[in-house]
Design a protein that fits this description.
With 157 residues, the protein is mainly α. It has 8 helices and no strands. It has helices at residues 26-30, 33-50, 55-59, 64-78, 84-89, 94-97, 105-120, 126-151. Helix 2 (33-50) packs across helix 4 (64-78). The longest helix is centred in the last third of the chain and has 26 residues, at 126-151. It is globular and about 45 Å long. The termini are far apart.
Length: 157
Amino acid sequence: MTESQTTPPPAAKQDSAIPPYGQDDTTFQSAGGVEGIRHLVDRFYDIMGSKPEYEKIHRWHPDETESRDKLARFLCGWMGGPRLFREKYGPIAIPKVHAHLNIQSAERDQWLNCMSEALETQDYPESLKAYLREQFKVPAGRIHTVCTRIHGNEGAE
């Protein structure tokens, strides 16, 4: 069994005593901290690499080890935890680093669907899964907007 196939760490349950997701480090803690986020990212890439419907976006990650590390580090900070991406790779502007790719609606939706599938494999409260699905639409939408401006509307790769 590979590390990405192990049981995910338990996630904190959202209740009235916990600040709302998106406040302080509640999302980060509820996702299981660094270990939980790395598990989510591993499942995301495992799913992306195993399903034909995600083949195109999977090809955009030739160094999957580095891609996993970058996404996990980014998500830690994005969810209110430590800014691990910045510590290792420096500052990031998500739309700009993806601008060389022709990410149109189909690719944006593939990424969101793959992440949704990965979320379903996690022992997160349903409220956290729903929150993250909505929140992931924000950077995905920004990336799509920038790429569409650069590459044109729904153009070829």
